[in-house]
Amino acid sequence: MVLADTEDTWHALFKQLDVRYQEPTLVLFSGTVSSACGFAKAAMGPFYCPADRKVYIDLSFYDDLRSQHGAPGDFAQVYVIAHEVGHHVQNLLGISDRVQSARQRMSEAQGNQLSVRLELQADCLSGDWAIRADRARSILEVGDLEEALRAAAAIGDDRLQKQARGYVTPDSFTHGSSEQRVRWFRRGLEMGKLAACDTFSKERL
To answer: Which of 18, 103, 122, 136 is the most buried if burial means most Cβ atoms within 10 Å?
Structure first.
């Protein structure tokens, strides 16, 4: 079970930081779901709610990854869960609250840029988890990383906007471009260090 493996990894890392890791809850849904962050429809895709510390995964999103976005495979699904758990890690470390507070004092475009940094950090954290888990428990099989990288590329803002309306509006990005998402997931994989995932101090993402 992916969630259990993320717990093993993040428990160990948080212990090094002298912080207690509190495990998130995984909620699988189809169609619609009610969370402490409000009512969600499947069209929103997977999400993490800081208010109830739950990871919400819409099962139809996995079908879309395969059929619409060309990103099939078990590890593509693993990447999605690991990314949302990355948001949980951000929440426990106080990063999410700082970003939310800062966004309230910004224009929409500036807030979007901050949101992109938050999302790319979650991508990096998912890569960090994958390499740590593989070092400890040899979880990766041939082709797994390629599946995850395909998934990261498939759900970049530029690609999704192009598919949906035929053009791209960078100022409206909230998750990052395909190239950025791949780069930061790779960075987590290659560096295997929490500090390497500091997207907020980088001038260029």
So the answer is: 122
Neighbours of 121 (CB within 10 A): 25
Single-letter amino acid, residue 72:
P
CB 80 within 8 A of CB 74: no
Helix (H) or strand (E) holding 65: helix 59-67
CA distances from 2 to 132, 157, 159, 190 (A): 13, 26, 27, 20
DSSP letter (8 states) at residue 35: E
- Backbone torsion region of residue 46, taken as left when φ is above 0, otherwise alpha when ψ lies between -120 and 50, otherwise beta: beta
- Residue pair 202/125 in contact (Cβ under 8 Å)? The answer is no
d(CA 174, CA 24): 23
Token pair, residue 160, equals 């999704």
| Residue 170 amino acid letter | P
Give the tens place of pLDDT for each residue, 115-169.
999 999 999 999 999 999 999 999 999 999 999 999 999 999 999 999 999 999 9
Cβ neighbour number for residue 197 with a 10 Å cutoff: 23
pLDDT for the residue numbered 30: 87
> Domain residues of the chain, as ranges?
2-21+69-201
pLDDT of the residue at 183: 97
